[in-house]
Amino acid sequence: MLSLHTNIAALYAQSAANLAQAQLSTSMLRLSTGFRINSAMDDAAGLQIATRLRAQVSGMTVAMRNSQNSTSMLQTAEGAFGEVSNMLIRMKDLATQAADASSSQADRGAMQSEYDALGAELYNIVTNTTYGGDLLLGNGSGAAKGKLSAVMTFQIGASSSETMQLDLAGDMAGLDTALKAVTANFAATGSAGSEISSGSGANATIALLAAAIDRVGGVRSALGATGNRLGHVYNNLSNMVVNTRAAMGRIMDVDYAAESANMASAQMRLQASVAMIRQNRNMAQLILSLLQ
Question: Average pLDDT of the chain?
Fold first, then answer.
């Protein structure tokens, strides 16, 4: 039907042009941003899933930093205990030498002076070893209370349930008692001791020093085991982050090959629709020719 008021062919062509223009705009936006989903209207369910994955990745990335920071803290404490072990071994050597009958009283006096100096340095290490400004080693009775003297909780994941605890409170209390037993100088106001000033006293001190060395070894072992576990935590988190990011990319990222083809198709359909709109101008001329 020829009509001046309603040009059905032109309306169809305009509708097709509008659809092609909308798809072309969507394709150009995706190709310019690199994302398939630029708003919730593009894929509401996909955006919800991707947002949840993004939050998980962000949390796991922070947990990875947590594990590294915690490992550094434990390494600092373990290094301090390594020096404590060295000094205790030297003190045990002095006690062993002083217990021998070949050592004179003057010899024992010189050894006691070195022994006292080592005891004072033990206290200094325990009370002044810090990480990030916080004390690490002190137990609170022989020195200020440090982090290792309370239960430490490490956040090793993105959820509230992903935590790890290290409880060395009992070990630190036992170590503090052992260090106070081997030297009078393990105190804020140390004084010259008499632990190895006699053969019998030196002999008794050997056993106390051996017990203290065992205490330090036990704490160092726990720190090393926890540090190794944190290393495995980091590796697992790294693997999870990589795979979660890959999953998020499959949801959010645009496929450039497919979207380029969609854009080319939309451009051709838009050009064809515009061409048909121009052709519909001839319809009016046909109607006028009937009135001549």
Answer: 88
